C-alpha cells in the first residue's frame, strides 16, 4: 500500500526524501513550483488529492497548522464523493496537539472508515519550504504520539511505524495531548519567543550597528530558530498560546531572579543560579544507563499496549509486523 504525503515544506519535504526508498510514496503540494522541484529530485507526485486517495491508505499531512482542518476536510469530501470505502488513516505532524486533535476530530467524525494518528517529529532546523528540506534532520529523531478521538487503525499505524523505523530509525514517545503541549511550550515554542525577543532587543539598541559587527557564536546560537519565515514561526507558536503564555510568565520570573542577583546580590549568588541552569541543561546530554525491553503483542491489542506506556517516558523503536504479531523495543533511561 502506498503512503501519501500532503505538504512539501521543511518537515514534509525532509520526510519525503528520507522515506522514498523505503515505501511506495506519493506526494502532493498545492504549489506547482514545489511539485516541479520534487519531481526533479525523483519524487513521485500526484496531480490531485483524488489521485492520492486512489492509491494511498495512509495520508500524512505536513501542511501549516492553520490550513490543516480545511485540507483534511477537502480530501475527505473528495473521498465521500468518489464512493471510496477502504480504510484510511489520516496522520498529522502538527506541533500543538490539544487544538489539532479537536479540530481534526470534528472533520473526521462524519466519515466512516477514517481514523486519525497524531504525531510530532521533534526535529528540524532553520529555514522553510521544500528548498530547506534535508532528510538528515529526521535521522534518529524522536516523535511524540498523542491519543486522538479516533483511535488509529493499528495495521496502518504499524505499517507507517515500520517505514519510519527502516528509513530514519525513529523513536516514538506516547503522550497525552496536554502533556505534549506543556512540554513543547518550554522546549520548542519558548525558544522561538526568546530568539525573537533578542532580535527585538538588538533592533531597539542605539548601538545596534556596532552590536551587529560584534555578534558572534553565542548570539547566533541563541537566535538560530528565528532564521525562518516570520509567518511560519507565528503559526508554530500561536495554537499553543495559552500554555506558552504561562511559560513566558514563568520565564520572566526567572529572568527577574537573575536580574536581581546582578543588581543586589554577590557574585557567589549569581554563580549559584548559573550553576543551577548549567546543571539542568547538562542532563539533556548526560549519558544514562539505558534499559531495553522487547515488547511483543497481537496487532489487535497494539494500542492497548501503547496506552499503558503513555506519559511514562518510554521510547519505542524498531517496529516490526510479522503476521498478526507486532514487536518493538521499549527504551527507558
Written description of the protein model:
With 333 residues, the chain is an alpha/beta fold. It has helices at residues 10-19, 32-40, 49-55, 68-82, 98-108, 154-168, 177-203, 208-214, 217-223, 230-237, 241-264, 267-285, 302-307, and strands at residues 2-6, 25-28, 56-61, 88-92, 114-122, 142-146, 171-175, 291-298, 315-322, 325-332. The strands form two sheets. Strands 2-1-3-4-5-6-7 form a seven-stranded mixed sheet, with helices on both faces. The protein has a three-stranded antiparallel sheet with strand order 8-10-9. Strand 9 and strand 10 form a beta hairpin.
Sequence-ordered SSE layout with sheet pairings:
Blueprint: E1 2-6, H1 10-19, E2 25-28, H2 32-40, H3 49-55, E3 56-61, H4 68-82, E4 88-92, H5 98-108, E5 114-122, E6 142-146, H6 154-168, E7 171-175, H7 177-203, H8 208-214, H9 217-223, H10 230-237, H11 241-264, H12 267-285, E8 291-298, H13 302-307, E9 315-322, E10 325-332
Parallel strand pairs: 1-2, 1-3, 3-4, 4-5, 6-7
Antiparallel strand pairs: 5-6, 8-10, 9-10
